Amino acid sequence: MTEAPAPRAPRLLVLRALGLGDLLAGVPALRALRRAHPDHELVLAAPGELAPAAAATGAVDRLLPAAAPGRAVPRTLDWTGPPPDVAVDLHGNGPPSHRLLLRLRPRRLLAFAHPGTPGIDGPPWYAEEHERDRWCRLLTWYGIDADPADLLLPRPPGPSPAPGAVVLHPGAGAPSRRWPVERYAAVAEALRGRGLRVVVTGGADEGDLVARLAKLAGLPDTDVFAGGLPYGKLSALVAGARAVVSGDTGIAHLAVAHAAPSVTLFGPVPPRRWGPPAHPRHRALWHPGPDGDPHGREPDPALLTITAGEVLDALEALAAPDAPDAPRPPGGLAAPPV
């Protein structure tokens, strides 16, 4: 007699088809969903290259590859089998993301309210809300306890390729969030003058940017990680860093996730929406002004007001006695503005 197949576990689908920083900002919400639905298979619809990061959260059972150019909503999802028991829109406030999930006919959809999809009875969307808080509030509205501070990742198993180095990451998803490479070079020269190791990282399409910074700062090839490090090595590099300096991009969120000291430069979008949590090991540099375009083609004017001297002062503050998580560099870090 043939045995009947085991019943399939109910499935929970989460849509967040965005970048690394977006995934890490959504970790508290993902973990809340995991706790609330321990018997479900939690499927995350996100870019395929984020599978290692998704696994590191401890909340995701399977990644469903999904992406679209320019942070848009994917046209379709390669979903098979019965409809999701629960679908959760962590991608945006709709209606395109709502409609994408509704086409799968989930038994229950958790999402923010939008006049374009009046059948969804969710909470209101607040544009100025911090990203981590936003998704936790969404789940809380539906009766799911969520803690925005539940964002740390376990330490990577592999060794850092540059333990104790200061990591500079000049790239970002858009030119408006890229601080001038000449200023990164000035920071690198000042730090190396104090006897610190400085390494530079960049994404798969940022080879020219990384090469220019390395040349200006006189960095040896051993301290240049161009072409996009695999997630495991990048994660280990950040977790073992003396400090991470970057714009508002994925590596800044990775530093927060690994409790690595960080200095993050903000311009078009203020830190109240994407910045690190309040902690002595993190410094967010921003000169208040009108919000800019986070996807603009030119460096944001507010970002350009940040000087190399300010970055070095912020690194010095990380090493001060009131920031016990970060070792104090020898001889100080100050340098004239650039």
Task: Outline the structure in words.
- With 338 residues, the protein is an alpha/beta fold.
- It has 2 domains: 11-141, Glycogen Phosphorylase B (Rossmann fold, 3-Layer(aba) Sandwich), CATH 3.40.50.2000; 166-318, Rossmann fold (3-Layer(aba) Sandwich).
- It has 12 helices and 11 strands.
- A 6-stranded parallel beta sheet has the order 8-7-6-9-10-11, sandwiched between helices.
- Residues 321-338 have low confidence and may be disordered.
Give the topology.
Layout: E1 11-15, H1 20-25, H2 27-36, E2 41-46, H3 51-56, E3 62-65, E4 86-89, H4 96-102, E5 108-110, H5 131-141, E6 166-169, H6 181-193, E7 198-201, H7 207-217, E8 224-225, H8 231-239, E9 243-247, H9 250-257, E10 262-265, H10 271-274, E11 282-285, H11 301-304, H12 308-318
Beta strand count? 11
Note the overall shape: globular
The CATH architecture designation of the largest domain is 3-Layer(aba) Sandwich
Which strand order do you get reading across the main beta sheet? Answer: 8-7-6-9-10-11
Question: CATH H level of the largest domain: which superfamily?
Answer: Glycogen Phosphorylase B
CATH class of the largest domain: Alpha Beta
SSE order, one letter for each helix or strand: EHHEHEEHEHEHEHEHEHEHEHH
Number of domains: 2
